[in-house]
């Protein structure tokens, strides 16, 4: 049974560096000695995480694990987030690290529901390719399990063009230091800078061995995110607002409900998100910026990007 969201519960997550905005975005609500939260707009099942990381069990499915569960993507924006980041995806060690990355201004992040899985699922590579991932960033926990997880991921991607970059967190070996701890120590405003300054390795699987090559410090955040945001707002959102005449944002960044243009909607069941620049429909799910651009026949993202990049 859910518990009321009180200042006490908010303070417990604030101690982990999470703001009220992040708590609201991920739908974190207290339940017993932990938090429950949605995993994807199309999946009714919820996840539960114990507040104490040493508790048993640490995670639960409510009421049970769905068959179609894939990556953690609570709002259905993952593909748009990857596109806006120039094909970059952060694969975190768990949902809590996804929350920490979001708090630090990195929305292009996800995780598996098995954490640092020993066996990479069969759908993993096809799903990354469907998301148009070009570079996969990982900052595993500082323990043998975390490092082995990176090697397993690199092995699974050996026959693809997806690069795997591993960032070594600044904590002692076997300390289990993670991105959440880095957020607490550095603060949200400094998280991207801290990640950018980590020692970074490219992990390449070759027959009979893994090769780990240290790279010079990369600029992890030099991508098309700002340009994609400009296209989303000035081209797509402007056309959508003119076509569907939805209201301005409320305090959570959503318009008032209007009739969903993606199905025969007789009662207003959709809202426009001014954060993701897409349609959230209670009946048929989330529709991202690229899908909306195609429906409205506006200037496509690739053409917009090419024209802005031209001298």
Q: Name the average pLDDT.
A: 86
**SS class:** alpha+beta
Radius of gyration: 20 Å
Instruction: Report helical residue fraction.
Output: 25-40%
Give the total of beta strands. Answer: 13
Give the spatial strand order of the biggest sheet. Answer: 6-5-7-8-9-10
CATH class of the largest domain: Alpha Beta
Can you describe what's shown?
Helix 4 (95-103) links the parallel strand 5 (88-92) and strand 6 (109-111). The protein has helices at 7-14, 20-25, 78-84, 95-103, 124-130, 144-156, 179-186, 191-196, 225-244, 289-296, 301-309; strands at 29-31, 34-38, 46-50, 59-62, 88-92, 109-111, 135-138, 163-168, 199-206, 209-215, 270-273, 278-281, 285-287. By secondary structure, the chain is α+β, with helices and mostly antiparallel strands. It folds into three domains: 7-62, no CATH class; 78-215, Dna Topoisomerase Vi A Subunit, Chain: A, domain 2; 225-309, DNA Primase, Chain A (Alpha-Beta Complex). The termini are far apart. The chain is built from eleven helices and 13 strands. The radius of gyration is 20 Å and the shape is globular.
């Amino acid at each position: 049974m859910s518990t009321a969201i009180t200042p006490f519960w908010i303070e417990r997550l604030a101690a982990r560096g999470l703001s009220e905005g992040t708590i609201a975005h991920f739908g974190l609500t207290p339940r017993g000695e932990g938090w429950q939260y949605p995993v994807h707009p199309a999946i009714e099942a919820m996840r539960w995480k114990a507040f104490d990381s040493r508790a048993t069990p640490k995670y639960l499915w409510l009421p049970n694990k769905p068959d179609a569960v894939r990556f953690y993507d609570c709002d259905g924006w993952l593909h748009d987030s990857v596109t806006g980041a120039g094909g970059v995806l952060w694969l975190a060690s768990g949902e809590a690290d996804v929350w920490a990355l979001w708090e630090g201004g990195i929305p292009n992040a996800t995780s598996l529901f098995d954490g640092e899985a020993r066996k990479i699922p069969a759908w993993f590579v096809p799903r990354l390719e469907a998301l148009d991932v070009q570079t996969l960033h990982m900052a595993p926990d500082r323990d043998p399990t975390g490092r082995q997880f990176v090697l397993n991921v690199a092995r699974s991607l050996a026959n693809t063009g997806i690069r795997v970059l591993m960032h070594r967190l600044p904590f002692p070996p076997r300390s289990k230091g993670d991105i959440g701890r880095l957020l607490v120590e550095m603060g949200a405003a400094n998280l991207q800078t801290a990640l950018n300054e980590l020692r970074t390795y490219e992990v390449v699987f070759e027959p009979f061995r893994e090769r780990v090559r240290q790279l010079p410090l990369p600029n992890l955040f030099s991508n098309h995110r700002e340009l994609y945001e400009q296209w989303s707002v000035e081209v797509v959102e402007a056309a959508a607002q003119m076509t569907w005449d939805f209201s301005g944002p409320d305090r959570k960044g959503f318009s008032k409900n209007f009739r969903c243009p993606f199905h025969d909607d007789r009662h207003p069941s959709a809202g426009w998100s001014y954060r993701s620049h897409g349609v959230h429909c209670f009946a048929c799910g989330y529709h991202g910026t690229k899908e909306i651009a195609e429906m409205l026949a506006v200037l496509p993202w690739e053409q917009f990007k090419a024209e802005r990049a031209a001298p």
